[in-house]
Amino acid sequence: MKIYNTLTKRKDEFVPIEEGKVRMYVCGPTVYNLIHIGNARPMIFFDTVRRYMEYTGLEVNYVSNFTDIDDKIIKAAIEEGVPASEISERYIDECKTDMKSLHIRPATTHPKATEEIPEMLDMCKTLIEKGHAYAAEDGTVYFRVRSFKDYGKLSHKNIDDLQGGNRSLLVSGEDQKEDPLDFVLWKPKKEGEPYWESPWCQGRPGWHLECSVMSKKYLGTQIDIHGGGEDLIFPHHENEIAQSEATSGTSFANYWMHNAFLNIDNHKMSKSLGNFFTVRDILAKYDPQVLRFFMLSAHYRSPLNFSAELMEAAANGLERIMTAAANLNYNLGVAGKAEMDDAEKEQLATANSYKQKFEEAMDDDFNTADAISAIFELVKHANMTGTADASAEYLRSLLDEIVMLSDIMGLVVLKEEELLDEEVEALIAERTQARKDKNFARADEIRDELLNKGIVLEDTREGVKWKRA
Ligand code: AMP
Ligand code: ZN
Fold it and tell me: Of the four, 100, 127, 128, 205, which is 20 to 30 A from 327 by CA?
């Protein structure tokens, strides 16, 4: 598997730190509003990365945060006259609803910045002790950028060029910095803002610090993959590297992955520009799977322009796969022969070559566009050979393959019959037993299987509760 690494500017062979396991952190949204479809691009893409890695047998520990304290959240709270936490909690819930619609599986952990403050204070203290940070008179703590010799290695910027650019951006209040390049780790509260106690002042953490700390806490000092949109390369990820590596003395993330923008009229879709559609706006008009299909129809490092025509093309493409799956399923129900004959075995080998093509595309820096093309080739082959006179074994193999590859893309292409309550209960019982036997892989598999059929499990003290989504 090769991954394009922003750090090295080339496709690097993926070798995880711990064999068979992946530690992946992706910067999540700032929750002050409904997410827009630009925010959904990294969510859908990295969910697909995770699904593909799991398909290859890797165990993925996937962490994605919610930035739940920020100027924009505070502003929204003041406007509504409610506490900031009410705004952030509301939009975390809304974001989770959108994720579910788009078949974005919950990460292993979704930490919230406000719940990790003690660890942030610890990192600040360590950085000060090591001479990488200092507190100014008003209690603001700054990172001393020039103390970190590798600064600029991710964004491939030269620190002296930055210095020139930044000087002209000097704004009032910044003159307490030793160097214009220095960035904030901890800042004093303003009147009426939420705050936490700290040795320096009552205040709150800087955004960059939050991600360094949450990544370390949930994945360890060194991680495999760190991802996000390309707008985060500088300064956010550059600053994360500086904080994390200055704290630990070792490298932070081995592979840095960045998705290109989702554009509208060839401009980045963003809340600040006002040129956005929320996921909710789009789902009022389109099936969520169409949006997902649209996002994956381009390579993640290519800009993608949102348009009604491309959404139409995505709807047609998805329809083609779903029709093929429905036909195979129908033919399976009426198949006269049970087992494959030799001619079908050969046809199956051809089908498998498309699966291999799919895997090659995904192994080449997650080329979802080519992977979808491989699914189309498989579909075409299935339409030609998976006819009503085919054997059940052959039809089943074709159907399984199409369903499985689509599932890696997060697409459910065969509408399953609804599970009966007794079937759900039986699967839950099997999962409980699997957990007792410490067979967590099977337990997770059952949870996912149920989720795919719209059954959501909740582990409570009284046992497992379930509901239909
Ligand atoms: P934000 O809420 O702005 O911090 O963004 C959350 C995530 O969405 C980050 O990884 C951003 O890079 C990403 N993002 C924001 N806007 C876009 C866009 N138009 N296209 C692709 N990714 C985006
Ligand atoms: Zn981040």
Answer: 100
